[in-house]
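Page 47, continued from p. 46.
Same chain as before, 529 aa.
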Amino acid sequence: MNSLLLTYMNNGILVSILVLLLFLFQKILKRYLSNICLYLCCIVLLLAYLIPYRPFAKNSLFTIMTPRVNKVSLELVKLTDLSDSNLYTAYSSEIPSSIDVTKDGSKTLVTATYEAFKLHILIYKQKLSQLFSFLSTSLYNNHFLLYVIWTFGVFITFSYHVIKHYRFCKTIKRFTKPLVDQSKLELLHKNQQQLNVYASITCSVCSSIGSPITLGLLHPVIILPSYSYTAEELDYMLRHELIHIKRKDILMQWLLLICLSFHWWNPIIYLFIRLWKDFCESSCDSIVLNQASPTERMAYSKVLLKTALHQNQIQQLLFINFYGGKKRMKNRLQSILDTKHKKTSILTIMALALILCTTSIFSFAKENTLNKEDPNNIADQVVTSTDLSTVVSKKDITIETSTEDKPTAFSMQDFIEDVKTYEGASYEWGGNTPETGFDTSGFTQYIYSLYGYTLPRTSREQHNSIPSIDRADLKTGDLVFYANEEQEVGHVAIYLGDNQVIHAANPKVGVKISSIDYRPVYSIGRVIP
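Result:
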């Protein structure tokens, strides 16, 4: 469920970039492209919002790397245990022998005053790390709270508009009666035949509306206002509504509501709805006035103005409104009176370009690609260990440990058998524990830490921190590194012998044993002498 949430968020941001571009350059686009073309582009964007899964481009002009947060297991510490006295007691084994620690936690500096002061700072860093670990685990490890908020927003948004639409339909039904004027019904059937609209359509009259509206997904209903209008005016209004029905615009409205529900948190989605409605009505006008004379265009414009005089604006998402609002009316009139020829032949190219732009120009790094090993994309590891040497880097302070802290002797056979027990463990990008799962470098870091060897966090850093050896000198326990096409290290495995390696492969299979040559070997490094 977390993957679904992050996928929709990432996809929503990417498509919103294209929506912003369309909004900013719409005046320029209207000079060269028809309203029909722009409306179909909006449909492509709508589908892009709804369907976040598309082929990822191998190379992108701009790759947006998502922040990487290590998945850690956390043991909560009681607030009563966070006193200086308890912390000093817990870490007394880490303090150099030249520093005495009293029972109440105060320090008596004998020698190495500077190092003791550093140690005091480290203890408070450990306090902060416990707090940040809790926040990291709650928000990033599980995303549970974020997922609950998002799901609640989806439910509320969808329910609000559906209930509002239901109440509107229930209210308007009280003032609606079937159309019985035979001449008007004949005009409706005539337009249906001319436009090849074969759906069963009901036509009614309502005294509480100022312009024609179309309702119903499966059984369309055209509701006409009750004030008087000429046969020519009625013809324009009916053709307009029938084109909406033919194009399945009511279905598009429902998809738009689903899109709004999933992306309620994104302010750009409300801008997109506005663009969609503008181009939907304008494109419908263009179809009605296809090959129309200037006189006919002027007559159609007067029909729009007449509906504006009788209009009581109703804000609804799930029906088609002939009027649409003052600003939209102004844009429609300008478009109607613009008789310049606009291009529609590049529609296919534009639709394809929009899809390609979503994945090729702006793309988030794919979750199981090697680019995710980029050190610039990796957050500092959240420390939960009581080992103070993991809190700060070596350049900050060096605390010598006793021989008991150094790697103890073990047989390589025991090492290999222990490593094999992790076969089948889950894969989790940013993970470095069995509880949370492993990524490729998190797995090797964890395994060697069990035997007293500290490795850097990423495979690239691991490659640079240990000595390289020739393939001819390869032995069990060595690290085998793999690179991408740009010869950048992005994957690491542990050699088991017999030309086999064990590694955190991908989210599908997790930790698995593979042939060492399942892909070209980049280099080999040695951790255990």
